[in-house]
User: Fold these one by one.
Assistant:
Number 1:
Amino acid sequence: MSLLKVSGLVSYIGLFTILHGIDMEIQPGEAVAILGRNGAGKTTFLRTVMGLVKTRSGTIEYKGQSLVGKPPHKVSKMGIGYCPEDYGVFNELSIEENLILAKHKNDAATAERIAYVLDLFPDLKKAFKRPARTLSGGQRQMLSVGRSLVNSPPLILIDEPSKGLAPVVIEKMSLALKEIARNSTILLVEQNFHMALIVTDRYYIIDEGKTVHNGLMKDLENDKELQHKHLGL
Amino acid sequence: MANILTLLFNGISEGALYFLMASSLSIILGLMGVVNFAHGALFVWGAYVFRMVFIQTGSFFFGIMAAMVAGFVIGFIFEKLFVSRVYGNVGAQIMITLGLSIVFTELIRVFWGPTPLIVTRPEFLAGVSHIQLGGVGTVIISHYRLFLIIVGVVIAILGHLLLTKTRIGMTIRAGVQSGEMVSALGININLYFTLVFAAGGALAGLGGALFAPLSQSINPEIGNMFQLDAFIVVVIGGMGSFMGSAVGSLFIAIMIALIGWYVPALSSVAPVTIMALVLIFRPQGLFSLLGLLRQAVKK
Ligand SMILES: Nc1ncnc2c1ncn2[C@@H]1O[C@H](COP(=O)(O)OP(=O)(O)OP(=O)(O)O)[C@@H](O)[C@H]1O
Ligand SMILES: [Mg+2]
């Protein structure tokens, strides 16, 4: 059974229909990129899966269970981690509090997981008690990604982690995501082709609210024409 | 000089009442984005329920508790039945909370009549102390006002601890920044909305209950008056800031006391003027200004 299966998804915000037909199937253990131009609907797609944007028609199934109409906290509890665009880190809370707040359970496994996150991102360990507003953009992204790992969710949705970061930091983040992808399924929205190449094996392209193409990253890497057509590269 | 000290003391004690109203308004605004025009109605209900229970049981303490319970229950009902349906729709929120305010103030007239009612102070707090300050003169300390200050300080400390040291508080602080993100972490933010709205109702009810023996006379309009000043405090203190509303309350209450004494003609214009100035020059609130000053001093 696929981990996430989306068919004919149409979603809307207020009076606007934003997604017009998304089809996607993700197997457990995969790392998949979602590519597309600015305003294509990538963020809206992740938000629709999380229950933050309303579905008009179509289906979203996670481990065979429908997510349509489920409120975000239930989607999260079902085992989906989410790193939004612009981090979604709580500035007035300390790094520690940001991580604690995400805990679904107070058990040893979760505590171990937080220790793992701090090993993965030593910057967070150093600033553990400081308010998140004192962090740099890269560190906030680490906190956002780290926080999404706290409950060991089988599926993690990450929205443009490279946005606004310096090239060295992007490099570090790419390697961290690659590491995370060894144990979790990752759905990565990215405009940074380089990062997508490092982290993911397969891609979907969204254009004007529809999935228009999918395939293997290594094929896309060599297909300049396709890159130009859908990504404007 | 002694006169000014007495005015300051009176101002601070009334600041405690503003604080009860403003802190809860501020958190409701910060967390849910709702400008709650029905808060004043909860204040009035607190005052009337307090008077009723105080007279019937003879216990000041029971009166206070009853007022808080009434505020909590009415706040709970407001949120569950009405406000929860209009989150994100500011226009509808204003209409609904204004409507609730009118209906619940009218209900007071139905149950208790439109004319002012007398409230007495509990005997153990009815006294006054005259404190001689060498060379300065005599400062008059009303025991009831002293009690108000103590309650204000206790609530400020408890509220601060709740917000900074508990998981509930952590969730509320996070929700003030983004309720959406809190829910995406697996927390049912709607429960917190209801809880905060009801707890805010309890604080407004407490404010009304404490106000009644202070003024010794209550009428259905007292809520509107306090609500306006509380909104001014929220603007000054910065919305969503608990401690900001404490500072803002003291500031406004002391100013009203001083101006009311020295330039009575300006006493009702001054707070609104200050609010306008803050909105123009410091829309994030004065409290964040204090924070900036502190940082600058540290450097
Ligand atoms: N709240 C909203 N109300 C109306 N339209 C919206 C809203 N949010 C997004 N949109 C529209 O939906 C479309 C998709 O936006 P979305 O943010 O999902 O794109 P994206 O692919 O993530 O873009 P980017 O690469 O710039 O992040 C855009 O045309 C945008 O204008
Ligand atoms: Mg986006």
Number 2:
Amino acid sequence: MSLARTFATTGRILTQIRHDPRTIALLLVVPSLLIGLMSWLFADTPVFDRVGPAMLALFPFIIMFLVTSISTLRERRSGTLERLLTLPISKLDFILGYTLAFGLLAIAQAAVAVGFAVWVCGLSIEGSIWLLFAVALADAVLGTTLGLLASAFARTEFQVVQFMPAVVFPQVLLGGVFLPRADMPDVLHAISDWLPLSHAIDALNAVSTGSEDAAYIGGELLVIAAFALGAVLLGSITLRRRTP
Amino acid sequence: MMNYAGPAVLVDNLRVKRGSREVFHGLSLAVPRGALVGLLGPSGCGKTTLMRAIVGAQKTVSGTVTVLDSPAGTPGLRKRVGYTTQSATVYDDLTIRQNLDYFRSILGAPRGDVDRVIEETDLGDHANQLVGALSGGQQSRVSLAAALLGSPELLVLDEPTVGLDPVLRVQLWTLFRRLRENGTTLLVSSHVMDEATRCDRLFLMRSGEILADETPDGLLEKTNTSTAEDAFLAIIAGDTRQSSEAEL
Ligand SMILES: Nc1ncnc2c1ncn2[C@@H]1O[C@H](COP(=O)(O)OP(=O)(O)O)[C@@H](O)[C@H]1O
Ligand SMILES: [Mg+2]
């Protein structure tokens, strides 16, 4: 592993994205637009205050998952990954380079989304807004690392888009947005305990209602971080220098 | 003859399967150190597969590939071997200079190298242009420039002159000769037989077998022909005759 090569890779990816202002605009604005739409839809009802925090988990997660999986898949298909892996860069450098680049974008994205939800849409937050931001960010980074992992199992852009319903939707359904997790059938509740998005949504709900202390939220953050780390390690194992 | 430690590349009894097809069924060859060697053969004969095996990107079934005295693909070789794939593998959405800066930092090559390789590949006028906006020939030169970073001892170039106009082709072969004069070993593949005459040594490959391993002059003499293309056709004719005799 080499920090210089990781940072060089991060810098390269950010320069690539800089040449694509439309993607940057979409990354920053789309989650806020969707959250704005939700708050308008449920204006004059208490619904937005109940599901708003979960939206801060969902939209950045889904968008980072898609953007990362497609850009690493592009790198595989164009042959630049094969070339890179004949050079002195470690697989972990490559994966961390990506995680860091999209992690930095995720900071900007989470800041815009949290600010918009709280100050423009009036999402009521009992707990600390910093904790809200931290969870939203961890969640976006998780989307990035799962996207990196998913791209290893896809050969085409079509396949990678199919991972959305396969990997993301079950987590959304079981995450407690549609039905509080406590009210689910026991088996589904048990499964949802093992899905990272459930922990993100729990943590965001806890911050907004102020129902739990910072230690609980820190614990949930650790769970999310553990999943992200696992995805990074698995992702670098699935990278192969020699291919058939 | 030159005195050398060992061949730059030694392939011994290599078997490779791609998909359900066996591409090499026990291939052996040696690329002498310090030579400019051409790997010629029709499309699909296995040139790319051989090059991938040399740079350690190809999964093999059995046999050994030794590069600069180490097994192919060992970490120590990654700085000493430069490789260009058949299609240009650089980033479309970066400028030439940004691409080369990135590969330079991955290689840990000196900073001045970027300017050197831009000049060697004659890309100075476009250095700050996005690669995606260049012609196919220019893109493949960017890919080549990236392989020259860090001055590797062995260059493995997969069809670097494909799609280039004759003037540029001559320029590149002049560059290859100059690199060779400075002690670099080059293995260059092509399916354009005429390029053969510019090499020190030639491998003619067909269906995963080496049909001839000769100097260009030796090849013409042996086959009693005057162009590389004719020589290749003569050798294929001889080869088919031999194998049909073997079947009798
Ligand atoms: N990814 C692949 N999967 C399966 N077979 C392949 C693959 N790439 C190449 N082949 C087969 O391997 C053989 C050699 O291909 P290749 O080395 O690319 O030839 P060349 O570079 O001389 O045109 C061909 O018959 C081709 O069909
Ligand atoms: Mg080829």
